[in-house]
Amino acid sequence: MTIPVFVLAQKSLTLESFMSKVYLITGTSTGFGRASAEAVLKRGDKVVWTARKPEQVAQLVQAHSDNAIIVRLDVTNAQDRLAAVQNRH
């Protein structure tokens, strides 16, 4: 349910529009994962980029340091999965 806060210049602003979302996306080095992370950043939301080789996306993440962090994650490795969700930034 969307709750209108007020209308400004014919645009309804809602509580949801003031809150950015945070996405944890796996496989952001290439393909669908990377495209998804880039799309989320373009929307103005925040992204936790995860990759087996974080150095592959480090430069891109640094360019968006206000809205992005990178966490090393190999989803097939139990220790990596635990470390990724416990990572506190």
Descriptive notes:
The chain is α/β, with parallel strands linked by helices and about 90 residues long. The chain has helices spanning about 30-45, 60-65, 80-85, and strands spanning about 5-10, 10-15, 20-25, 45-50, 70. The protein has a 3-stranded parallel beta sheet. Strand 4 (about 45-50), helix 2 (about 60-65) and strand 5 (about 70) form a beta-alpha-beta unit. Residues about 1-15 have low confidence and may be disordered.
Order of strands, main sheet, comes to 3-4-5
* Helix content estimate: 25-40%
Q: Uncertain segments of ≥5 residues (pLDDT<50)?
A: 1-13
Question: What's the tally of helices?
Answer: 3
Q: State mean pLDDT (0 to 100 scale).
A: 80
Oligomer: single chain
Structural class: alpha/beta
Question: What is the count of β-strands?
Answer: 5
Rounded radius of gyration (Å): 16 Å
The main sheet comes to: 3 strands, parallel
SSE string: EEEHEHEH
Shape: globular
* N- and C-termini, Cα separation: 30 Å
Percent of residues in beta strands: 25-35%
Short description:
The chain is of the alpha/beta class and 89 residues long.
Helix-strand layout with pairing:
Elements: E1 4-8, E2 11-14, E3 22-25, H1 31-43, E4 46-51, H2 58-63, E5 68-72, H3 78-86
Parallel strand pairs: 3-4, 4-5
Antiparallel strand pairs: 1-2
Key traits:
single chain, 89 residues, alpha/beta, three-stranded parallel β-sheet, two-stranded antiparallel ribbon, 3 helices
